[in-house]
Specification:
By secondary structure, the chain is of the alpha/beta class. Strand 2 and strand 3 form a beta hairpin. The longest helix has 19 residues. The protein is elongated and about 95 Å long. It starts with 16 loop residues before the first helix and ends with a helix.
Length: about 675
Amino acid sequence: MIAAPLVLLAALPLIDFLDDLERRAVRTLESIRHASTPEEAAAARPALRRRLEIALGRNQMPWPPKPNGRIVGTVRRNGYRIDKVVFESLPGVSVSGHLYLPEGSAARVPAILFYNGHWYEASKTLPDHQAFAIHMARSGFAVFSFDPFGQGERGVSTRDHRRVSSLLVGISQQGFAEYETQCALEYLLSRPEVDPKRIGMTGASGGGYNTWITASLDDRIRVAVPVVGTSQFALQIRFSRQVDWYRAAEHCHFIPGLITFADNHELLAMAAPRPMLVINATTDAGFVAGTVVDYGRSLYAAHGVAERFGYFNDPSAGHGYQQRKREAAYGWFLRYLMDRGDGSPSPEGSVDIAPPDAAELRCFPEGKRAAGPGMEEFARKLAAGIHSRGPANPSAFFGSEPATAPPPTLNNQSEQRLVLAVDGVAIPALLLRPAAAPKGLLVAVLDAGKETLTGDAVVRRARERGWSVLGIDPRGIGELRTDKRGWTAAVSLLAADHFVWRQAGDLLAVARAVHASPEYARTPLAWYARGDNAALASTYAIAEAARKGPAIRAYALREGFVSYRQFLDRSTSNEASYRLADKDDRERRFTAFDREIPFWYVPFDVLRVFDLPELLATSPASGLVLHPIDGDWNRMNPVAARRLLPRKAAVVETERELAERLLP
């Protein structure tokens, strides 16, 4: 929720920024035209796949995948065996997997790629997942089940599911997941026991979502059964707002810009007309299929293969891959990979499930092998080879111009509270005037909010010098602070609507409107930002003001980052992020335990276009930087900071020097 406002915003015909974000996301989804015929689906598929691959960062990965899989042991059971497999995904990153194979088959068998969703501690050895693989192996299928990063034998690490630094180089979290899936698929296809023309895929929750992504991109997946991972995205966005999208603890669902070109309908259309069974649960509010099911039925009927699309809703159990869901999947795979039965649920019978921590199932007997160091190292090496192509134009990069605000009605009071409409969102501000005619206008944005203006020494200096001070609370700061930061960041990323750029737009709109008033139109304008969020948003605003005004004479950025690359170079924090948990502690999953970089600070693939110093270099204003911070949130050495900044920006070492030079 947005904190209780200090001015009566509710009396105005305006909306809060969370409502605005949700409405814009829903409108974006509603603008997508779903293919309704086979011809339309075929025509749309190549462009959709290209856009999805870019959003995943698939082509940033080592390609083609070379998993170099090897068998490290075999467990023999009644009617099947388990080959314990280790393969490589990213350089130096080992993946543990179990390949279940039927005993006694002389011919190549159909195979199922099983992506384990977010069941952290057990992962591939979760009893429900074991039961699926055992039953299918006894039914004549090969099943390859592997541990995703941060799970199972790779160690319980929630941070491995939200490594935001890779966004800077154009790789989303689901991009990592999809790449490891491709590595697993390559290994599965390399096995002589497997029929490469009869490959299916399934998984629950994040595994169901991953099944959608892989099936939409890869025609080698002949049959897909996504389980509790299907949703109409607008319904998911609306529901997840209540729970802050589970504090955005797992980023696999947050594909940059996805909802600008695809709903779940498009994922389905990319996979059609290959057989598809959607399995959901009645009590699973986070995954509601909505119109996806009717759309699937209609599209497959248009293809002339209505029977190849199925829907099974389990009223008996919620989120997971419980027995009734498994039985529905068994029947579907039997029908379309073995030509047995009619696709209806097939009974499971008894299965001999081993304890999830059974020693004989371990692929890494020497201990856990965390993925985090390899993921971060890969992102850093990729970043090292990237040189921005420019130009440093934030409007062009973010795809929108900042909004405008109507001119406010100003009075002569020493303190005036303002609320300006920026794209229909109420943005509050506080204008502090001197006793005499103002010598200038200082725009001030503080992470602590505008209500702390009078306690700031730079603001006091401005008032003593006869300047007016305009304190602005953009969305997410001060009066507009929110406890829905995870949801806000996730929806902004999905909608290709960078949140800090929206904050910059709020600041510019209010600053332009007030500075254009008769009282200030002929006075100089200076800008002061304090705090990492305020400084980042102000960097965007300063660069945009250089293009279209207002003219800023000088600016000061205090206690902020000076380069995106600091989000990658975090020696202390990264080391902390590699720590593995003893168990799947649910509360720990939602904790930013190593001073993470806030999710909403990181634009997708931005380093290919500009870095923060390049934005500041576009401004003719003189710049001052005080106490900049590094990626570990420590105060930087002034000499090191100076090397990163453009020529017109100086590093100062005291608050007094900052105030005197900003406001001489």
